[in-house]
Amino acid sequence: MSDKAYVLFEEQQRNRGIDLDQVKERLKALKVETPSWGYADQGTRFKTFQKVGVPRNTYEKMEDAAQVHKFTGICPSVAVHIPWDKVDDYAHLKEHVANLGIKIGAVNPNLFQDDDYMLGSVTNSKEAIRRKATGHLLECVDIAKTVGSDILSLWFADGTNYPGQADIRKRVQWMYESLKEMYAAMTPDMRMLIEYKFYEPAFYHTDLADWGMAFNMANKLGPQAEVLVDTGHHAQGTNIEHIVAYLIGEKKLGGFHFNSRKYGDDDLIVGSVNPYELFLIFYQILDAAADVDPGVSRTANNIAYMIDQSHNIEAKIPAMIRSVLNVQTQYAKALLINLDEVREAQEAQDVLVAENAVRKAFEFDVTPLLQAVREEMGVPADPMQAYLEDSYGQDILARGKGGASW
Amino acid sequence: MSDKAYVLFEEQQRNRGIDLDQVKERLKALKVETPSWGYADQGTRFKTFQKVGVPRNTYEKMEDAAQVHKFTGICPSVAVHIPWDKVDDYAHLKEHVANLGIKIGAVNPNLFQDDDYMLGSVTNSKEAIRRKATGHLLECVDIAKTVGSDILSLWFADGTNYPGQADIRKRVQWMYESLKEMYAAMTPDMRMLIEYKFYEPAFYHTDLADWGMAFNMANKLGPQAEVLVDTGHHAQGTNIEHIVAYLIGEKKLGGFHFNSRKYGDDDLIVGSVNPYELFLIFYQILDAAADVDPGVSRTANNIAYMIDQSHNIEAKIPAMIRSVLNVQTQYAKALLINLDEVREAQEAQDVLVAENAVRKAFEFDVTPLLQAVREEMGVPADPMQAYLEDSYGQDILARGKGGASW
Amino acid sequence: MSDKAYVLFEEQQRNRGIDLDQVKERLKALKVETPSWGYADQGTRFKTFQKVGVPRNTYEKMEDAAQVHKFTGICPSVAVHIPWDKVDDYAHLKEHVANLGIKIGAVNPNLFQDDDYMLGSVTNSKEAIRRKATGHLLECVDIAKTVGSDILSLWFADGTNYPGQADIRKRVQWMYESLKEMYAAMTPDMRMLIEYKFYEPAFYHTDLADWGMAFNMANKLGPQAEVLVDTGHHAQGTNIEHIVAYLIGEKKLGGFHFNSRKYGDDDLIVGSVNPYELFLIFYQILDAAADVDPGVSRTANNIAYMIDQSHNIEAKIPAMIRSVLNVQTQYAKALLINLDEVREAQEAQDVLVAENAVRKAFEFDVTPLLQAVREEMGVPADPMQAYLEDSYGQDILARGKGGASW
Amino acid sequence: MSDKAYVLFEEQQRNRGIDLDQVKERLKALKVETPSWGYADQGTRFKTFQKVGVPRNTYEKMEDAAQVHKFTGICPSVAVHIPWDKVDDYAHLKEHVANLGIKIGAVNPNLFQDDDYMLGSVTNSKEAIRRKATGHLLECVDIAKTVGSDILSLWFADGTNYPGQADIRKRVQWMYESLKEMYAAMTPDMRMLIEYKFYEPAFYHTDLADWGMAFNMANKLGPQAEVLVDTGHHAQGTNIEHIVAYLIGEKKLGGFHFNSRKYGDDDLIVGSVNPYELFLIFYQILDAAADVDPGVSRTANNIAYMIDQSHNIEAKIPAMIRSVLNVQTQYAKALLINLDEVREAQEAQDVLVAENAVRKAFEFDVTPLLQAVREEMGVPADPMQAYLEDSYGQDILARGKGGASW
């Protein structure tokens, strides 16, 4: 049936003026990075439930990540978190990962779990602690060099819980000084992606609270610094795709951390709460990719897509596969938007026609398309089903409980 | 100076028609329960920073709680959490606590940290797990009987993370059946306080998501079941004092968990984000306490005030004292509202005068009043200062790090 | 191509165990009421832009509504708002409407635009105003009798803007007394649907602020009173489908006002912000419709679906058609959920399989199904296209600007 | 009694190390601008209730504003809105206003009530409309020159209601081009204050949605462009004082529109929802005013404070006086923060002491201080009481209903 479905799909899209060859090419080029910590035990402040079969170390996390790539074909890299993924020999790790058919992606420093950082890391009023934090950032640049990564992904838990607790303006300066030093240590091919977060774990103020603060920091640092958008890090009601469009227009959007949330930073499976929002994000990206301004289109085509989730109750590897598939599905749907049609309606100021030109692409079932693309890529047409039928999920149960956690 | 200040304050309030003797009497009658877990290490999902001097067991938690009562005079009871406060001999614990000059207050079952409860406790689709959960509830009734507590305080982490994960309507029934059994086991003097929570740790749906669901459950169970309002458990923008007024009007408000938050359920020190909201809550309570309907005034006068906070970065005992003082301060201010003045303005439909009649009570400095009351109660005029000058805070440092945590 | 598409769709769904005949039957039975005011000029507090061709009176509103039914086949009734739709002769209006092939649906009293109601209608502290408001409610019951409507749909703007402005508890009583009188005037076949709203136009407290207050009111009034859920009337992050499931479980859900919003009560086209939410609402309804409890399934099958939107910038009739089609689309998708599959996964406690069983139905393209259903119903396969090609939209431009507004 | 109270207050503050002379000097220097439209009829989208006595034209609005200054002494200027305040002869208006003892403050263009602007003004895809909008901006610069104002205050209703409706990135450019032209027309002493808004009246995206977009625009325009913070224009949970501190640190905060809200942009009386937030905003400003960086302190000392409210149900002039007094009260309280004490606690990393050092200033009753200051300024000690006892409020009732509205 799949064949019939695809033939029909092709005919349907051709009639709409969609160039399916280009769509398929872009789908094959899509890369979604998964995070090493996504394979480990995670929880809420109330409880981390320990799962059977969770990786016990970084090497096993990489093995799990390799499975996600094996079945989806679009996850060739894994983000690491230091020191969660600290190993004695990073060159050896790099080799191990290469043998698994994948590579190490973004390097993420961790500046929130050392006791010294309770009241701030690069923003701590104690110089010695800022120094220590900066040292860790520089260490991560070195690790990136060793493992061959060109992305440093920065999220800071820095902030305060109470009014008056700290000097907000001084902390801005301190963070800048630290990042400037890190920036200087990067090689010219490296990018520093600066993440922001609305709240948690700091509950009064977060030093990089929104895209504006991350953007301003990136502007001050230079062209190798860009903003990273985590879809769960905004106030309720925020139009995230607007921020995405705006940052691309400013040539400063560097990457994404994808996840979903209903209220807080719930870190649920991507696309499980409002898949249309994800689709609209991709619409803005694809619209920008077609911009006549080469800087804008270059930015839109150079975004690092990364998953950042916390699977508290569900099986880890299948949950990651689900997220990756959901990203791929919404990307595929967005590729079916006829941008010319949208633009014509915009120029005619026909609100309903313009809205419809975007939304109707969302309503197509892209299963036949994705199955065709996967077949051409040499991966299973139904990656989830294939993974569940594979023995890997059973084999790792031998690891028992008590795996790594963050 | 304090004397002069009080004399002036007295004159000022007398001129406004405030009966200061009654105000003082009510201030002396105010009781605020502190939670045993509030003295233990707590954190966010990212990190629990371990503090030096944190109690290592329930007995030490009680000792810390006794200090808060010693210095404030209004915290004679301590809520316990089972199994965090599980001891071999509850009668012995009761005696120990009595020797400290305090007593055990609300008994809180914990149905969210056992692996069995990952997908629900009293709402779990597996009967054996519901049975186990109900057993724990009954155990807590027994403990309450043993320790002489008349309040069972119920918060459930039950909920789901994804659409379709569970049968929402069946879970309502299952919870009801379990609570009915618990209700039947209570002695006639006992009250069951049912707490609700908007989100976290379940991120898609919480089985008791709002006051309406807790209220409906309490209605079905009977007169000994009432609603507990945790100030941090509402959606942004919710008018909490409206809910308070409404529940008292329905004679179904049983208690409070006080804490503050800026966005999530941040569990910050009470009164640190919007002290006016706390004042307005007390305004509604005091207004209802003066109601001609005896059921309404009885309800308003029989509310259990409890602190429920998570001190992630600040010193435990002083943070608790701060919260207690903030509650006392806002209660004192609310007692200065001239309710007749408000009602007259309401009847005259003069919006600005009515608003002013409430707000102006908030603007008084109640320090002289509180100092006078404390003097009459035989506790330090400045409890925080007195505690900090006392040796207790230093002495407990000998406990070292690694205390109890939740 | 449509035929091929439907054949393929049918095969696909049959393989999944979906009974397409039943699906089609239910799609044909779906009724969505449109509101007379949705055809009139509407705006924000900043500006109501006047559109050319907007109806100048109730008769013309009915004519426009009849068009929506003509092209979609599922909008046979129109809600009216009194006094916006006040006419001298309601029997004549009823006849006019019948001649248009439709009928009058819910009757909506308006208690928020008379100067007397500035500080409350049925909750006003002045008895004379409450009396007047109750009189209007009784008038609406009479109108309903005359026009043959069995639904009274109540939304109150009542509330306050400032703390202290009014006596919250007394207002609860006053509203109850008024509604009790209205309830008594209804014939046994009539239903009173009680709507709630989180905020606006009252900004401090709304007398019926959430489902819990509407539900409690309906409970006190009796079996003919039920709750009406307006999808835009909740705090951010609220799980609306949870409330829907809960209310059906309590046999107290009576109807919906459909619209979308990103932040406030934006009253945008249904399904334009988060179509998945609408799908999940229908999932809960259909799940309940299959419940073994006859009261639950009866409730689920007896819900009044109504549109309530404010088309500030877009063309009125096409916007209404778009909303109706979006409702139909999500309903159709929800009908493709294999409820047995969901339940099996729930019983097996397989979170990912259960989530997938729901979500995958959302990913189907139901266009072939809807086209087939419409063909069988004798309406255009593409109602929007057909309306735009029809001359009606052009003809009404002769009405000019300055139509009715609310 | 007032004297005794002030003597006591003075002693108390002197003991805390507060320089009351400086505090009084700053209180006398505080200026709060009121808006001409705040004296006119305003409402919600549901209804604008018409008040008796509302000004019928700009001249009468100025007369009302002059009353607020007369009784408070701190409102010497009035913001105007063009075309709401369009007059034939601005020089004559200027003279009239001067005769009232006040002057014209910020000039606010209105680009949201002309039919042409329904889909955007300076961001409209039609060049002719952008041209018209820019012309209006230039007209406002001319008016400012004529009336002697040095502030152009810009709020745009521009945005979209639906995904795809317009090209988000192009609109950024179009707005920039328009503002650049306006900027060029300003004299060197003029400031352009750029306001942002989270939502409403556009419901999908607002072209200047947050401080970051306004800030980036101001940066591109030049030093005479700054950001204006309207306290009601943020998502729920946003830390506004953080944004204030951040913008001052960047030397780009130009002014405020003060009002309160519980959920939406409710435009309620300042300080009626969370007065502590207003206090914390002033804390950040005063902390910055004491900064060693002269650019930072200059910015903090050069902020334009303006009221922007919508009195839907309450009497206009008293509501404005209430707001002004609330601003003054919180400013006075913030002046009582001992900044040295805060900084010492921050350096010692004592969270609780630092928090307390800020909060305790909030708890003082500043009534004696304000009465003393007012006496020295030659205005009534209780401005509200004095206004209510004055005949002005009665006299204007002769204006009748049907005053100006926006």
UniProtKB/TrEMBL annotation, chains A, B, C, D:
Keyword Manganese attached: yes
Limits of the Xylose isomerase-like TIM barrel domain: 88-266
SUPFAM superfamilies in alphabetical order: Xylose isomerase-like
Matching Gene3D superfamilies: Divalent-metal-dependent TIM barrel enzymes (3.20.20.150)
Keywords attached to this entry: Isomerase, Manganese, Metal-binding
EC number assigned by the record: 5.3.1.14
Top-level division of the source organism's lineage: Bacteria
GO molecular function per UniProt: L-rhamnose isomerase activity
InterPro entries assigned: L-rhamnose_isomerase (IPR050337), Rhamnose_iso-rel (IPR013457), Xyl_isomerase-like_sf (IPR036237), Xyl_isomerase-like_TIM-brl (IPR013022)
Protein name: L-rhamnose isomerase
Species, as recorded: Paenibacillus gyeongsangnamensis
Gene, per the UniProt record: rhaI
